[in-house]
Amino acid sequence: MIKKAKGRLRLLVSMLALVVLLSSCGGGSSKPENVNGEKVTLQFWTIALQPTFTPYFNRVIADYEQKNPDVKIDWKDYPYDAVTNKLLTSIASGSSPDVVNLNTEFASQMGSKGAVVDMNEYLSPEEKAAYFEGIYNSTVINGKAYALPWYTGTEVLYMNTKLVKAAGLDPAHPPKTREELSEWGRQVNRKLGKAGYAQQLVSKLFAIDGIPILNKEKTAAAFNTPEAVTMINNLKKQMEDGVILKEDADFAQQVKYYAGEQVAFELAGPTFINFIKTAAPDVYKNTIAVPVPTGKADVRLSNSMDLVVPTKSAHVNEAVKFAVFLTNAESQTAFSKAANTLPSTKDSIKDPYFTQSDQSLEAQAKVVSAQSLDKATDYMVGVPNAKDVNSAVTRAFQNILLNGTDTKQTLTALEEEVNDILKQ
Amino acid sequence: MIKWLRSESFTAWAFMTPGLLLLAVFVFWPIIYSIPLALTDYSVISDTHYVGLANFEAAFKDRNFLISVWNSLVYVLIVPFLQIFSILMAVLVNSRIPAIKIFRTTYYIPVVTSMVAVALIWSWLLGNNSVVNYLLIKVGIISREIHWLSDSNLALYVLMFITMWKGLGYYMMLYLAGLQNIPQDLYEAARVDGASRWRLIVHITLPLLRPYILFCTLISLMAAIRVFDEVYVLTKGGPGTATLTSSLYIFQKGMEQFNFGYASALGLIVGAVIGVLSIIVFRFNRKGGVNPY
């Protein structure tokens, strides 16, 4: 009996020793280069841009390396779903990339954790002034800018003219406000039995009506107001009236509904066109793009991609310099032309490319959205722990709009939850 | 030494070592390592600080976590249904009826299909203006669309149904193996004594399937509490917290919000819940419990 127990104990101890030994075989941290005049290699990561935009990046990287002979850029591209895990594992194993393309929400989340450098420390006032202020400020938390804005998109209103005309509406005089859009949606529902549009239930809904998510100091929730109750109850009514689909529809679902002509409208950025062109060529032919109807706040919301430099980068100075180069007006104009996106730099939209339209849907959407960039603001401006806040808000919206919980009570509980998140 | 090299235990260890090594690296070590992690605010991307039991205290005050554990426990309700239906299906496909191999294969197809693919297909079947709603309205069973996945009273049960639908074939195969191990002469002796088909199942099949029932109940119980794929693909835990399961919440806290210390604490609590439930199942299946004799 004792012999058996000893044997088991020995086995357990040797197993544990083996495990500890194996776990110590981790990746070593990257050492700063350039100490003896050697070339610095910058790890540059993007999200879902290969192979479509490989020629653009090869060109811009070659250009940068020619101007900076002591720097070599190692460009890697990852799918959207994989980049988070990849970034976490790289940082954990001590081989952090130097320049990473992230969205605003993720960049703010990393900034809140102190994981990316404050760009304000590195950029001159002139360099900062090159970007649209509303977009540059989207990742500013406590005066620290955690990312440089890169390519962006503002929403436009896509309309299925076939359905709109069938409902007795005139696409030549599109709705200009959210109220008018609701009326159009009601008419589409009445006449055709289809919904107006599908929508994702995110914090953006507050921003459309000018309801601040947080107070000015970003220390507490600020959305628990009578205006918010009215706004949410109005959304509830619109769902009951068939203006908005009673569902929390992500972008992929929205594409599906619009392509299947189950909704007459779509509020989305220019990338929506590529999806609809592939999914439903006939619907694409009947689609026009017009300025997005604004809510009470009269703002147009941008949805930006950013460049961040992780604090664990071994070459912070070189990385920031490259990020500035990639997001300057010249580089951004070229990228916008290649990728049908919008730039976040003021000088870029002076280019004729953003003012002239050949009446194609792509050109309509581009011109319409480029005109609103100076008014554009990201809806998650400077929100610490943006991901946590967003998922809490989404859950609350779903509870009220889909599960039928009391608006005021749910908002009060959400306020408490967001305040707890901000204390973390 | 040479004697040991020729022994049966050496052979056994030689076969087990590769698997044990993999388990050590990918299972045992993460479990052990999560214990110290749960006592910190580890986030991978920033400095780590010791926080003591703060993560555990926060967990028991975290309404969303408590809801997620409750939803996972509700999910366990599929276990008895899963066992009953898979045993019945195994009995069915164990009979000598024509084209039985086609049935076996058909029932097993969902098992070998990726859960993500299965979930996507079900999302098309159950979404707005979906095939299921269309057919039910046409037949006259329902008068207007049912929001299967965005109705908080339905969504969790719909997910449970999908999990059950996918798992049936797997457990059916395990029970089929069990059924084919039962000596046929026992049945023949009972038939000679005039036992009906039902009595054969109750007095021979079920008692002799007991080890299989224990095994299947345990693994399906663990799978039910750990359910992730279908919830992540179909509802992301929504609407609200209606389908938020513990695995999904732990994933959100760790991989999406970088609170790995907190996520480790949640993982340990859920692990303890699974441990307690497993012990109950073991106790229930020792002598006592359901005695078919």
UniProtKB/TrEMBL annotation, chain A:
Signal peptide span: 1-26
Stored PROSITE patterns: PROKAR_LIPOPROTEIN
Keyword annotations from UniProtKB, A to Z: Signal
Protein name: Sugar ABC transporter substrate-binding protein
Record InterPro entries: Bact_solute-bd_prot1, SBP
Superkingdom of the organism of origin: Bacteria
The organism's taxonomic lineage, starting at the top: Bacteria, Bacillati, Bacillota, Bacilli, Bacillales
PANTHER family: ARABINOSE-BINDING PROTEIN-RELATED, DIACETYLCHITOBIOSE BINDING PROTEIN DASA
TrEMBL record, chain B:
Protein origin, superkingdom: Bacteria
Record-level GO cellular component terms: plasma membrane
Keywords: Cell membrane, Membrane, Transmembrane, Transmembrane helix, Transport
PROSITE patterns: ABC_TM1
Subcellular location: Cell membrane
Classification via CDD domains: TM_PBP2
Residues in ABC transmembrane type-1 domain copies: 69-281
Coiled coil residues, start to end: none
Family label: Belongs to the binding-protein-dependent transport system permease family.
Protein's name according to its UniProt entry: Lactose ABC transporter permease
